[in-house]
Amino acid sequence: MRAPAPAPAHSPSRSLALAVLAGAMLMTVLDGSIVTVAMPAMQTSLGFTPAGLSWVVNAYLIAFGALLLLAGRLGDLIGRRRMFLAGTAVFTGASLLAAVAASPGLLIAARFLQGAGSAMSSAVGLGILVTLFTEPRERARAIAVFSFTGAAGASLGQVLGGLLTDALSWHWIFFINLPIGAATLALAVRALPADRGLGLRAGADALGALLVTAGLTTGIYAVVRIQEHGAASVHTLGLGALSLALLAGFLVRQRRAATPLMPLRILRSRAVAGANLVQLLMVAALFAFQILVALYLQQVRGYDATATGLAMLPAALVIGAVSLGGAARLIARFGERAVLLTGITLLIGVLGLLTRLPVHASYAVDLLPVMLLAAGFGLALPALTALGMSGADEADAGLASGLFNTTQQIGMALGVAVLSTLAAARTEALDAAGRSAAEALTGGYRLAFAAGTGLLVAALAVAAIVLRTPAKAANTEVAIAA
C-alpha cells in the first residue's frame, strides 16, 4: 500500500477537520432517523396515503444508496474536498425545501435531493479522514469519533425528532439542518485540506457510472417495495433480475474499461470485501432494533413521539461512551478483529433478548438491559470501519469510503423490506387466528428480531472466517498500546 503523503506544515488543524467530518456525518444520520417518529404528523399535515408515506424514507434511501459509489469515485477524481462541500450545500438546500414543503410530492422530491447531497458528502468523508490521520493510534481514535456519530446519531435522531415534532412541528426536523449545514460549510472551507484529485481522465467511465447507478437504483427500489408487492411477485423478481443484470454488466465493464469507475482490485482485499459483507448483514439486522423497537413502543405500549425517543436514549449514550471512551484503546490493544467479534456477540444478545419481548413489557426489566447491550455497536462499528478502509491505498480511499457507505445503505434498505415484511406477515397471521392487536403486533416484531439475530450470527461467522488482522499490523498495534 502506498503511504499517504505527509500533511503540509501549515495544514489546518486536523482536530477541526475531524469535527467537520463528524458533524456532517451526524447531520446525515440524524436526518435518516429523525424522520421516523415525525411521519404520523407528516401524514396528517400533508394528506399522505399510507403507501405514499413510505416514500418519505424510500426516496432518501434510493438516492443515497444508488449514488454513493459514483460520488466516492468522483471525489477521488475531482477532489474530495470539492465533493464534500458540494454535497453539504445540496443537502442543506434540500433541507430548506423539505421544511417548507406544502405537498407530498414536494417533500418526496426534497428527500431525494437530501439523499443525493448526503451521498456526495458521506462518500468521501472516510477517504478524507484516513489521509489526514495516518498514525495507527490517531487513526483508531479518529475513526472511533467518526463512527460514534453514525452509531449514536440514529438514536439521538429519534429523541430529537420526537421533541421537535411535539413541541413545534414536523417542519423543524428539517429547519434544524440549516444552521448545522451552514456552520459545516464555513468550517469545512477552513479545515479540510485542498486536494486536486486524479483528474477526470484518470477514471471518467461514463458507461460504468450509468450501469452501477441504474443497477443500484433499480435494486433498492425493488427492495423497498417488497412489503407492497411481495417477495415472490413479478414486480419484485423482475426488477431484481434487471438490477442483477445491470450490476453484472457494470462488473464486466470494469474489467474491460481503460479507466474504470471502480477498479476491481479493491475487491481483492479480504479486509475490504469481508468488512463490507459483515456491514451489510449487521446493518440489516440492527435496523430491526432501531425501527421496530420504536414501533413496538408506540403501537403496543402507547408511547408518544417524545417518550419513544427518550426510551431509546440509553442506547445512544452507551454507544457514545464505548465509541469515544474505549473503542480506540481496545482496538490498539487487541486489534480490530477481536473488538469486532466482541461487539457482534453483544449485539446478538440484544436481538436475542428481543425475541422474548412480552406484550406488556416492563421498560426497566425487558427493555433497559437491551439498550445497555447496544454498547456492542460502539465496539463493532469503529473496528469494522478501520478494517474496511485498511485494504485501500490512498488513491482509492474515496472509492473505498463510497463502497463502505453503499453497503450500509443497502443493508438498511434490506432491513426495511425483509424484516418489516416478515413482521407484517406474522402479524396478519396472528390477527386472523383471533389474537388481540397488541399480541399480533408483538408476535410480528418477535419474528423480525429472530431473523435479525440470524443475520448477526452470519455476520459473526463471516468476520471470524474472512477477516484477519495482518501479523505485522497486529504487532505494531500492540507495540503502540504498550
Automatic annotation (TrEMBL):
Transmembrane segments: 48-71, 83-102, 108-130, 142-164, 170-192, 204-224, 230-252, 273-297, 309-331, 338-355, 367-389, 410-427, 447-467
Domain Major facilitator superfamily (MFS) profile residues, every copy: 17-476
Predominant cellular place of this UniProt entry's protein: membrane
Protein's cellular compartments: Cell membrane
GO cellular component: plasma membrane
CDD domains according to UniProt: MFS_MMR_MDR_like
Membrane topology: Multi-pass membrane protein
One family name in Pfam for this protein: MFS_1
Protein name as it appears in the record: MFS transporter
Origin species: Streptomyces filamentosus (Streptomyces roseosporus)
Lineage summary: Bacteria, Bacillati, Actinomycetota, Actinomycetes, Kitasatosporales
